[in-house]
Amino acid sequence: MRSLFHSLLILLFAANLFSQTPEPTPTPTPADDEDIVKISTTLIQVDATVTDKRGRIVSDLKAEDFEVFENGEKQEITNFSFISVVKDLNQKTKKKTDRGRTVPVPYPAAVMTGQIRRTIALVVDDLTLSSGSMAAVRKGLRKFVNEKMLPGDFVAIIKTGGGSGALQQFTSDKDKLNSVIDQLRWNPGGLGGVGTFEPIGGLIEHNIPGREDVISKMFLSVKNIIRSMKSVPGRKSLMLLSDGFSLTVSPSLELETDLRNEDDSTTTRELSIAKELVKLANRSSVVIYTMDARGVQYTGITAADNTLAIPNRRGRPAALNPRFRSTIRNRQAILDRNRAGLKFVAEETGGFSIQNNNDISNGIEKVVQDQSYYLIAYEPGEESFDPETRRFNKLQIKVKRKGLKVRYRSGFFGISESDENKTALNNGESEIVAAIKLPYARNDIDLNLNALFAIDSLAKISVRSFLHIDANDLKFVDEPGEKKVANIEILSVSFDASGAIEDQFSKSHKIIVSPAKYQEIKRDGLIYFFVFPIEKGGGREMRVALRDQVSGKTGTASRFIKIPMPNEKRLALSGIVVENLTLAEWKARQSENTQPANESTPLLDNALRRFQSGSVLTYGFEAYHVKTDKEDKSQLFSRTKLFRNGEVIYEGKDAPVALENKSAEISSALGALNLPAEFTPGSYVLQIIVTDKLAKRKYRTATQFVQFEIVKQKSRLIKSGGSKVEF
C-alpha cells in the first residue's frame, strides 16, 4: 500500500512535496429584494438603525412609529420590515489549550451558503496613521480576528496606501486575515509621523508636500473599495481606521447642508471628494463607520517637546510663552478638524464615528454588532428624478417613540440605478478581469480550486493548482462531424502576502469533444491544472476566474495557502494529500500492489475532497528537516484529530511515524482514517500534529489541516472520477 500511495503522489504532483490549504472563500447568499437598499424611479428603499439611550438596537418598532421626509415633504411608507442579523454575541471563540501544547486549533471549516450574516471591510488608512497608531491598529485587528470574530462574519482587511486595495476578497478564514495583519506597516510616505503631533523644536519635520493629493488618494482608495462592495448582496459595512483628515472647514459647521448643492463654489477640494464618497456609499448600500485610531490624546507638553527651542524673554517659563501656548492650541484644533472629517463621512452614510477610545478591537466589535436595521420604502415623485437637475434629495427619518435615536443616510442624488448602471458599462475592463476583482466569489459556473505547494531539493517552490469545472454550466454547441464545442477563457492571479500581484496568466481554450466524451464530462466535470513559481515562503492567495465565451457566464474561486520558509531548517509539514477508498479497496491495497482503476480519481479526490461515509480516507504528507540521531534514526510521532463545527469528534493517540523515501531534507509519511457510516454529512477538518522529539522543544511540533466534505452516497463526480481533458 505504501509504495502504491507514493506512486499516487508522484502521479498527482510530479514533485517531492505537496500542500493542502483551507476551503475556498464561500459565495455570499444572494439577498432577497427586501434585503437590498434600492433607489429607482418607482421605489426608494432606505435603511435606518434605531438605538436606545444605551446604544442598543431597538427591534420592536412598526411602520406607524416612523415618519419619512424627502426635501421636507412627508412621504407615505409603502413597505416596511426589520432585518435582523443577531448572533450569539456571548459565544466564546477562544479554544482551550490542548494539554498545554502550543498547537493551533483549526478554524471553522467554512462558512456555508446562507450562513453569512455580517459583511464588513476593515480599511486601514495607512496614508494618515502615525507609527504609534499603526501599532495599535495591528494589535486591535489581531485581537478582533482571533477572539471576537464569529462564524458567519465575512471580513476583508484593506490598506488605503497600496497593496491589495479593491482586489482584497472577503473571507471567513482567520489564517488569511492574520497574514494580512502581519503585513501592515507604518507608511512613511503618508501624512502620519512617528507620533501624533510634531514635537516642538524637533529636528525632523514630517511635512509632506501635496497634502491634498495624499487625502485625495485616500478617498480614491476608499471609493474603489466601495465600488467593489456594491455587488455584494444586502447591506454592507466599511470601517475606516484612521488618524483623521481635515476637510478645511470648522468642526462646528453643519456640513450636511452643503450636500444639497453639488455646484457649491465655496466647497473645498477635500469636501467635494468627501461628498462624492458619501454619494457612492449611499448608492452602493454601504454604511461607513470611522474610528480615530489615536484614541484619547494629550495635547500638552511631552518629553518629546524641546521647550528650549522657543525664544524665552526675561526668564519667563516656556509654558507662558505666547508662541508655545499657540502651538498647544493648534494641536487641539488639528485634532478637532481631523475628527470632524471622520464624523462627517460616517454620519452622512448612516454610520457613526468612534473617538477617544483606546481599544481598537472593542470599536470594531461595536460596528459589527450594529448590523440590524429597518428597511423603509416609499414611492418617489417625478421631481425626485428630474433629468434637468438631478439634484440631491435630502432625507429625514423621525421616530415617534421618545428616548430613541435613529441613524440613516443623508439622502440620494436624482439618478436611478438603471441609469447609473448604463454609465458603468463598457468602461474598457473585460468581464473576466472585473470578475476576479470582485470581493466575493461568483458561482454562475461552479468551480472548485485546490492549490498545493511543492519544494524541490534545491529549495525552489512552486504552487500547483487543480481546478474542477462543472461542465453542466458551460454552453456547448454542435459542430460538423458530430462534435460538441465550448469556448472558455481563464484568468489566474497569484497574490503575495502583502496583496501585490506576484504572477498571472490568461488563456483561451476551445474544448472539442465527441458525443460520448460530452456525456462523460457533463457527468464528471473537467479538471484544469496549472503551476505558478514562488520566490519565497509566506502567505499566498491563488485566484481564478473562468468565463464561458458563448453564454457569458462567469465563475470564480480562490485559495489561501501558507508556505513555510525553506531555509528556516525547522520541522514543517506539507499539506495533506488524500484519496477516498472503499473498505474493500483499502484492504486489498494492504496485500496487493493494486493500481488505481482510473487515473483521474485521485485528481478529483484532491480537487473536491468529497468523500462517502462508510469509506476510508487515506492521506499522505511530507515532513521537512526531520532530526536524526547518530544511527540516522528519527523519533517522529503523529496524532490525528477530526473536527466538526469546531468541536473535536475524534482524537487519536501519538504513534510513531514510519518515514519513507527519506532524504536529507524531505521524508514522507502515510496514514488512513475510517469514516463511519453514521457520520453526519457536512464539512469536516482533519488535523495532523507531528512531534520531533530530537528537535529543540520550541521547534519540535508542526501541524497541518485538510478540510473535506462527507456525503451519504458518492456523487456522480466521485463515482466516475472526473475527466482530464486536453484543450
Broad CATH class of the largest domain: Mainly Beta
- CATH H-tier superfamily of the largest domain: Coagulation Factor XIII, subunit A, domain 1
What structural class do you assign from the helix and strand content? alpha+beta
Tell me, briefly, the overall form.
globular
Describe, in plain words, how this protein is organized in 3D.
- This protein has 3 domains: 2-24 and 441-720, Coagulation Factor XIII, Chain A, domain 1; 41-84 and 375-415, Immunoglobulin-like (Sandwich); 118-153 and 208-371, Rossmann fold (3-Layer(aba) Sandwich), CATH 3.40.50.
- Helix content is 22%, strand content 30%.
- It contains 13 helices and 32 strands.
- Strands 25, 27, 28, 29, 31 and 32 form a 6-stranded mixed β-sheet that branches.
Topology:
Blueprint: H1 2-13, E1 38-39, E2 44-51, E3 66-70, E4 73-75, E5 77-83, E6 118-124, H2 131-148, E7 153-159, H3 174-182, H4 211-229, E8 236-242, H5 269-283, E9 286-292, H6 322-347, E10 353-354, H7 360-369, E11 373-378, E12 392-399, E13 405-408, E14 411-413, H8 417-424, H9 431-437, E15 447-455, E16 461-469, E17 477-479, E18 483-495, E19 501-513, H10 515-524, E20 526-534, E21 538-548, E22 554-563, E23 572-573, E24 577-581, H11 583-591, H12 600-608, E25 610-612, E26 615-624, E27 636-644, E28 647-651, E29 655-656, E30 666-675, E31 682-692, E32 701-711, H13 716-720
Parallel strand pairs: 6-7, 6-8, 8-9, 9-10, 25-32
Antiparallel strand pairs: 1-2, 2-11, 2-13, 3-4, 3-12, 5-11, 12-14, 15-16, 16-20, 17-18, 18-19, 18-21, 21-22, 23-26, 24-26, 26-30, 27-28, 27-29, 27-31, 31-32
